[in-house]
Amino acid sequence: MLEGPPPLQGSSSVKKAKNFKVTGTALDASTFDSNGRQVADATGLRLQDGRIRLFAFVNSTETLPGTLSATSTSKTGTRFAADATTPLPGIPAGQPRVISLGGDTVRLFYVAQGNINAALSTDNGLTFTDEGPVITTAQAGFEPGGISIIRHKGTWRAYFSNLEKPGERTTRVMRTATSSDMLNWTMGPVITQKRGPLKAGGSHPFAVIDKGRIALYYAGDRDAFYGILVSTSKNGITFTNERSVIAGGGDPDLVRVGKNKWLMYYGADLGGGNFGVKVAKSVRPVVPRK
User: Which of 31, 41, 54 is nearest to 2 (CA)?
Assistant: First the structure.
């Protein structure tokens, strides 16, 4: 969920990545015919026909807030129509993250009741069977938020932060964990500490890996800048070379749409008290090199 102050005015010492260009708004309350004025935490799945299915938290004053989905009306992944099904009916699921397991099988991770939970789908994310908690508050050492997972050195590696809550300003902590099956996790170190750019904190991370090098996208508050940042790592634990990506944005999620083409969906203030999901396209490598 998008949090923090608006982009600060003035010059920032944080160098720019210049690897994404904003193209427009992908989701807002009208997509789901909601009066809640808040759509956030989008996560994307590229379907076999090239369209994009997004899952997002939708706040409504008429129904139970939770995760809904919408599918792009073309392969460009910029315009969406709400799906007729509800992925997790009756569950106030937030901060979803989807990952393809091959074919029509996908797993959706979500936050509820203080835990990161998982659910499995065999119809490309239209309906899910809940699998229960996979990372608890007790395991993480804090109430965890949305999770991002990559394949790294023969295992699954996850990144997550402490849960963002509207109006709450607190130290942003990010941690890593590893697993052989995505359901049972061994906690790794907190990566926002000691030295390096991440000592200033970050939230709602999303990881991308290319040729063994990891790029971690996250929201952060830095010298005269608030928005989406990116840092890189080879070992998955120590990150350097921090760059700014999109001012004022949060909750980044990247979807590959071609060999070297990516779309980023992220939370944004749409004005007038409305919050939604914008989309940006890559114009340079998503894993920056020095």
Answer: 41
Closest CA to 175 of 152, 219, 153, 142: 142
Helix H or strand E encompassing 95: strand 94-102
Tokens standing for residue 212: 């063994």
Q: What is the pTM of this model?
A: 0.94
The DSSP string of 3-16 is: -SPPPPPS--SSPB
Q: Which two tokens stand for residue 58?
A: 């939708």
Is residue 4 included in any domain, yes or no?
A: no
Radius of gyration of the chain (CA): 17
Rounded distance between C-alpha atoms, residue 258 and residue 241, angstroms: 25
pLDDT, tens only, 105-155: 999 999 999 999 999 999 999 999 999 999 999 999 999 999 999 999 999
CATH number, domain containing residue 135: 2.115.10.20
The residue segments making up the domain with residue 208 are 20-282
SS3 211: coil
pLDDT digits (tens, 9 = 90+) for 55-68: 999 997 666 789 99
